[in-house]
Write a structure and sequence with these properties.
Radius of gyration: 29 Å
Strand order of the largest sheet: 16-15-14-13-12-24-25
Strand content: 15-25%
Largest sheet: 7 strands, mixed
Structural class: alpha+beta
Length: 703
């Protein structure tokens, strides 16, 4: 909407508010008006930027880096591992299309595969050739995809180098491992050492906020600095000024993220209030901090991190005292005070968490309680170690060694909590509204009635959890890829392929209760079958692995709680084929069922074993149900159930309509993960019972 329209509407609302003569209404309307006007003006500025004239073209550009380049998460596109890329924000200053040069000042997102950008720092000028695309990121005017190398045309400033040396020094002192990678994150918000799997555990356990510098970090650091200043200054005013300067440096060190700016603004208000002896009221300080940050950078209002930070702080201010009083009636005061903050923060943040992730983790409450005692020692000691690391690296390493056991403890808590099921709802507005209504009812309606209804709903949903009982064969819902398990009992299973994502396959195997894998079969080396390997091996004992080391005729037998499980390799032979037609194909036979799984076999290899193929109960359909299927081979299998592992909305058109028709013609019941979710089959005397993780009635489910 154009700024003049926003301004006109603002004037009308302000006049209406003034006519009501109610201060709260006036303040609320003016705040909303101010925010909307600033946002509208910034939006209009971006939309009218000259960079839009160069969309879908390749140009030479010059830009000023504004954020640290960060490596993006590992990505898989179908069968292919995509090369690592790096992303950062910059201020676009010049465009050279060859025929003309244009100077401007527009925020943009730059993505490049050039590894040299890792050493670049905010404030440096760069030049590059880039394709200009329309950006889906609201705060940027364009997305620039670098073509070739990125050249730094200026050196970083001494100030930027000093800050980088501190960050790098803390990384080096921390060492390796999940526990060690936590320390830079908890002290400086630097998560570059953390693996994708560990980041997933932190999210699932509800501990991600520990590595997002926020109000808690500022409170700890400011209290520590203020305490230190008493040894340097007798005047409280000088102590406050020194602490404020230290916090400004701390902001530059940790980088001005949404939660950092909010916490910094609030800390500034409280410091001024404390220094002038006018009293400190946290709630007005929070309101002022929100307004200050949003006016300065309106895009922060649309950042999830900013919303979570504000809501968590509001929960601590408004709801934590009520929780403390509630628990104090039946538990020790110290325990009540420890339990109140995470409960209050979780309650207020729950709607946004569900809207973003689609799940809530009940275990996160306990995870936060267990981790809380270790936060302050790690933050203070790590802060000191970071400051001295450029000058005294050995002493810095010694300090980090002292607190590393605490960091390892938090990492263990995250891994433990991530192993429990989470309550899954729909993402977006619906999930937000559902949780918001539940919380409103809990705060306003009779407590006993609300608690009874919530417990009843959760109990009924838990009874519908997946797989909820005995299962013999399972096909995981891991997107466009393959991943299946054959149950051997006692938390043991054969795993066939690992899918494209370690997090998804690990989550599936946790749901299935698999802790030991006597036989891991990787049918072939395409990314959608092998990229999830780290998730399978995480915390599980792996026995024999078949990957490019078995040929037609190989056999194995494993013992399950239901009897022997015979595995026969039907393909590949000793010939030379493309990766799909070199897939390991196995027939698994037990007293209760038979199963065929052939990776991404296509007609060439399918036809070579069609004459020796026998009927099976379960067919794990080759190549995600693509159109490349041999009709004679498929009819020879004649399965009761055909499982298709496929991603929703994939660009390959899987499963192909012709393949679905062919499977249905054999009399098979066709199940597909894009519609049915994960699939679990229980079998007895070749009678199959199917259960899926998704249905129209499972809006609320445990995963």
């Amino acid at each position: 909407m154009a700024p003049w329209r926003i301004s006109l509407g603002a004037i009308c609302f302000v006049l209406l508010a003034l006519s009501q003569k109610k201060r709260r209404v006036i303040v609320l309307v003016i705040a909303l008006t101010l925010g909307s006007v600033v946002m509208s003006m910034r939006q209009q500025s971006l939309e009218s930027s000259a960079v839009a004239n160069y969309f879908q073209s390749t140009v030479e550009v010059k830009a000023l880096i504004t954020t640290d380049p960060q490596r993006t998460a590992k990505r898989v596109s179908g069968q292919i591992f995509l090369p690592p890329s790096f992303s950062f924000l910059a201020s676009l200053r010049q465009i050279d299309s060859g025929s003309e040069k244009f100077n401007l000042r527009t925020p943009v997102r730059i993505i490049t595969s050039d590894k040299s950008v890792v050493g670049l720092l905010p404030g440096q000028w760069i030049s590059l050739s880039a394709s200009v695309l329309e950006s889906k990121e609201a705060r940027t005017g364009a997305l620039l995809i670098a073509r070739g190398s990125v050249t730094a045309t200026t050196e970083a400033s001494s100030w930027a180098k000093s800050l980088a040396a501190i960050r790098l020094g803390l990384r080096n002192a921390s060492g390796s491992g999940d526990g060690a990678s936590l320390i830079p994150g908890m002290v400086l918000g630097d998560t570059s050492l953390q693996s994708d799997q560990f980041k997933s555990d932190m999210r699932r356990s509800g501990l991600t906020h520990l590595v997002a510098v926020s109000g808690a970090n500022f409170a700890i650091v400011s209290a520590f600095v203020l305490w230190c200043m008493q040894f340097l200054f007798r005047s409280m005013r000088f102590r406050i000024i020194a602490t404020a300067i230290a916090l400004i440096c701390f902001i530059a060190l940790v980088r001005p993220s949404p939660s950092v700016l909010r916490a910094a603004a609030m800390a500034a208000v409280l410091l001024i209030s404390y220094g002038t002896r006018r009293g400190a009221d946290s709630l007005p300080a929070l309101g002022f901090a929100i307004a200050l940050v949003v006016v300065g950078d309106p895009w922060q209002a649309r950042e999830p991190g900013f919303a979570l930070s504000v809501l968590a702080t509001a929960g601590l201010l408004l709801y934590a005292p009520r929780v403390t009083n509630f628990f104090a009636r039946g538990v020790p005061k110290l325990l009540a005070q420890a339990a109140a903050p995470p409960i209050a923060a979780m309650v207020f943040c729950a709607p946004v968490i569900v809207a973003l992730s689609g799940f809530l983790s009940p275990a996160s409450l306990f995870a936060n309680l267990f981790a809380a005692p270790a936060v302050a020692p790690i933050t203070i000691t790590g802060f000191i170690a970071a400051l001295i690391s450029p000058l005294f690296p050995q002493l810095s390493t010694l300090l980090i060694t002292c607190v590393k056991p605490l960091a390892i403890w938090i990492a263990w808590v995250a891994d433990w909590a991530a192993g429990y099921r989470v309550l899954t709802l729909q993402k977006g507005l619906i999930g937000f509204l559902v949780i918001a209504v539940v919380i409103a009812l809990f705060l306003l309606a009779p407590k006993r009635l609300v608690v009874t209804v919530v417990v009843l709903v959760l109990s009924l949903s838990y009874m519908q959890r997946f797989p909820a009982g005995q299962w013999q064969v399972a096909n995981c819902d891991i997107g466009q890829g393959d991943g299946a398990a054959i149950n051997l009992g006692n938390h043991r299973a054969i795993v066939i392929d690992t899918g494209p994502d370690p997090e998804l396959i690990d989550r599936c195997l946790k749901q299935l209760g698999v802790r030991e894998i006597p036989l891991l079969i990787i049918t072939h080396g395409h990314a959608d079958h092998i990229a999830g390997w780290p998730g399978v091996t995480k915390g599980r004992k792996i026995g024999l692995t078949w990957y490019q080391n078995v040929k037609r005729g190989a056999r194995a037998q494993l013992q399950s709680t239901q009897g022997p499980v015979d595995i026969e390799v039907l393909w590949p032979d000793s010939g030379s084929y493309d990766p799909n037609n070199s897939s390991i194909a196995v027939r698994i036979t037990t007293k209760d069922y038979t199963l065929f799984a052939g990776g991404d076999m296509e007609p060439l290899s399918q036809s070579m074993i069609a004459s020796t193929t026998r009927e099976v109960d379960i067919y794990k359909v080759c190549h995600h149900g693509s159109a490349y299927q041999d009709e004679i081979f498929t009819k020879a299998l004649s399965p009761q159930v055909a499982m298709i592992s496929v991603g929703a909305g994939n660009s390959y058109g899987h499963p192909a309509p012709a393949t679905l028709e062919l499977l249905e013609a054999t009399g098979a019941k066709v199940l597909r993960t894009d519609r049915d979710g994960a699939i679990a089959i229980s079998a007895r005397n070749h009678r199959l019972k199917v259960r899926t993780s998704r249905s129209k009635l499972t809006f609320l489910r445990w995963e």
